[in-house]
Every structure is written in structure tokens, then in C-alpha cells.
Amino acid sequence: MSPDTRLSPSPPVSGEDAAAPTLSQGLRQRHLSMIALGGVIGAGLFVGSGRGIAAAGPSIVLAYAASGLLVMLVMRMLGEMSAAHPASGSFSVHAERAIGPWAGFTSGWSYWFLLCMGVGLEGIGAAQIMTGWLPGTPEWAWVALFMAMFCGANLAAVKNFGEFEFWFAALKVGAIVVFLAIGALAIAGVFPGADAPGTSNLTGHGGFMPNGTEGLIIGLLASVLAYGGLETVTIAAAESERPVQGVASAVRTAMWRIAVFYIGSMLVIVTLVPWNDEKVTTAGPYVAALDHLGIPAAGQIMNVVVLIALLSAMNANIYGSSRMALSLVTRGQGPRSLARISSGIPRRAVVASSAFGFLCVLLSYWRPDDIFQWLLNMIGAVILVVWTFTAISQLILRRRTDPAKLVVKMWAYPLLTRVALAAMAVIFVLMALEPATRSQLYWTAALTLVLMAIGYLRQRKAAGTS
User: Fold this and answer.
1) If 0-12 CB within 10 Å is exposed, 13-18 middle and 19+ buried, where does residue 315 land?
2) What is the DSSP letter of 5?
């Protein structure tokens, strides 16, 4: 095959990911393992979790435990399908195979939109940290620098993405491990200068659930959305040296480790610091906990960690969105001009995804109160839509899959898959009942319905011309 090859899209109803065989297999097992671990450890955990703690109090531990169980079930389903049929389109390909092209179109493009918006948001967050360190420097210039850096890395070779993510994820994981170790010592009363808090912060200040079930619900919704990003590992698996073994190993090891990081972190924070401490929301829960222990320069230390988390997420989202776009267009579900692979890299898809992310940044400057907020609301519950398609696809594909290909098996099939679907339905209902999340749910529903209609019409048109 020549270095610059235009791919012919496979029949729209086939559900096969034609791009996967021609992509570079430059990712190693160590890359996949760290992508799986680092994919969800972002600013949402380091900073955004403070809003969940402020709403739920110490019961945020239960919220993260419940949402963590749901994420484990979803990842097990996705791992089963991706190990049996590795594809750069991941759940979009599985939805097309199981339900139909309209489902693959809807889940794929909604996720692409989510990732591109994420690139913009993370670029803005990283730029704000840099301007805090270097006052007077323009925020847009930092965003442009970061966008150029990671777009260039993704254009060069997939191993560059893998190396960036490996070291970014290693630093994030290392920071969490150190934090958990310090927290455990402080809780045990053996950290220098810190007294053991006992259960005073868990039961005092209004009790374990100070804001009742409403606060717990808000914390639950915040924690569910914080877990988004783990799906990238199943997208990346198609470009690894051993896709089947790679995704199986990454999914198995990542699930329990991430549960420990998230739930363990929340338990340490609410044990050490009163949940209603203003620093939990203003400075972030990790900074509040480190400050409480008297660790010097805790705020700046965490700013470095958050910056790394944001840059890591930018890198992963540019990668994931470009691969999702490529998979969609090679299946006849998008502009064919993006269906070009050069030296094993989908460079046009990388540039298109990066450009949309940068457009989101510009909109945040030009129209922060209407257009940008409108776009933000549309992605509010997209991850739940994707998880719903994933669960339905697994229910269907499990019956069609050769048992010999089931390297990873969903636990207690089909019971736990149905339990996960029921849990997602409950979360949708809770979002509709909660004023703070209702508008996000409605805008996401509108985006999903529009994509479903377009996908269905394209499917009917393709069926009529075949």
C-alpha cells in the first residue's frame, strides 16, 4: 500500500471498521495500560470533585462507589466486545454491528463532538494555569501552543501519542499514590505534625449525609460524569501490537485500580477535611487536604498535577476524536475527504478534530454566554448515551459472538448488563428531576435525536441505493 491511500468505505450496514487494518500498530502494552489508568484521571477528579463533596458531604464516597460499579460494568462489556472485535471505532462499530448503522452514527459522532469540546475546555484550563504563573501573557497564545504541540505529536506517529500519554499518566498515577499514602499516614496519626482525625469529619458538621438524599444525588451525577474517558483504551487497542491481548489486559487491570484511586481519594479527603471547608471548592479538595496537613506549597504542587492532567486529556482527546472520525467516514458515515491515511496516521482526521477543538476555544472567548454555553450543555450527558448504546450492543453481540473469541467475558451475563441499563435509566431520571442538570439532559437529548434522525435517513438512503 502506498504511503498516501484513500480508503474505500465499506458498506454502511456492515459495521466493520475498515480503517483498523491500515493504521499503524505503534502502541505497546505499557502504553495501553497507562492510557487505561490515566484516561479518567483528569481535572474533573483533582478539581471538579470539590463540587460533589460540597453537595453530598462525606456521602460522596458512596456516590463514587456506586458510579464506579457502573463504570466497571460498562468497561467489562466494552472490553468483551473490543477483545472479540478490535476496532478504532470501538463502541460505535459495536453499535453498528448490533443495532444498525444509525446507532453507530449516533454514538460515534456524539462522542466525537464530546471529545472535541473536551480538547477546547482542557486547553482553556491549562492556559489559565500558565497565565497564573506568568501574568500578562495572553491566554489564547498558550492555547494555540498546546493545540499545535499535541496536534503535531498526533500527526507524527501514534507512538508519540503513546509516549506522551504513558508519561503523563505515570505522573498522574504517581501523584495519586503519593496523596493516598500521605493521607493514610495522617489518618493513622503517624504523619508528622498531624493528629488522627478519627471519624469527626465523617459524622460531624451535619452528619454523613448532611444535605440528605438530594445532596447524594447531585454528588452521584457529578461522579458519573467524572469517569468519562476510560473508553479511549478500547479505541487505542486497534493500533497496538497485540490488540486482543492488549485490551483484555488493560481493561482487567484498570477497573479496580481506578476504583481505588477515585473512591480512596474521596475517603481520604472527607476524613481529613470538613466537607464544608471553603477550600474544598475554591482551591480544590486535594489542595485543601494537603494544606490541612501543613504541606508547603500544596497549591502550586497541585497546579502542576492539574496542568499535567489537562495536557494529558488534550492529547488523548485529539487522538480519540481523530480515530473515531476516521472509523465513521471509512464506514460511509461522514465526509470521505477525511478518509485518508498517510504513513499509518489519519492526518486529515487529526487536523479536523484539532480545528474543531480550537474553534470551541474561540467561541468561549467570543460568545461565552450563549453559543459556547449551548455547546457545553449539549455534551452534558453524552457519555451516558454512549454507555447505553454500549450495554444494548453487548446484550445483542454476545449471542452472535463465537465463544472462542470471548477473551474477556461480561460477568453474570445478561443479568448485570440489564442491571447496568436500569442504573443508567435511573440516572437519566435523576438528571431530569434535578434543576442543575435538567437543561444538560434536554440539550443532550436534542443532539442525540438529531443525530439519530440523520443516521436513520442515511441508512434508509443507503439501503435504497444498494
Assistant:
1) buried
2) E
Per-residue pLDDT tens digits for 339-348: 888 877 888 9
Query: Residue 357: which of 326, 319, 394 has the closest Cα?
Result: 319
Domain ranges of the chain: 22-461
Query: What integer pLDDT is reported at residue 260 of this predicted model?
Result: 81
Say whether pLDDT at 124 is over 60: yes
Q: How far apart are alpha carbons 94 and 108 in whole angstroms? A: 10
> What angle do helix axes 298-330 and 29-38 make, rounded to 10 degrees?
120
Cα 407 to Cα 71, 165, 249, 412, distances in angstroms: 20, 26, 10, 15
Tell me the C-alpha distance between 403 and 324, whole Å.
27
Tell me the C-alpha distance between 142 and 152, whole Å: 15
Which uninterrupted H or E stretch holds 131? helix 101-133
Residue 48 carries which DSSP code?
Answer: I
Identify the three-state secondary structure at position 375.
Answer: helix
CATH number at 22-461: 1.20.1740.10
The number of CA neighbours under 13 Å toward the Cβ of 406 is: 14
What tens digit of pLDDT does each residue of 265-281 get? 999 999 999 999 998 98
CA dihedral of 19, 20, 21, 23, whole degrees rounded to 10 = 80
CA angle 215, 380, 443 (to 5 degrees): 115
Instruction: Compute, in degrees rounded to 10, the torsion defined by CA atoms 186, 173, 51, 124.
Output: 140
> Please, are residues 109 and 349 in contact by the beta-carbon 8 Å criterion?
no
Question: What residues have CB less than 8 Å from 198, skipping those under 6 apart?
Answer: none
Whether 213 has a pLDDT exceeding 90, the answer reads: no
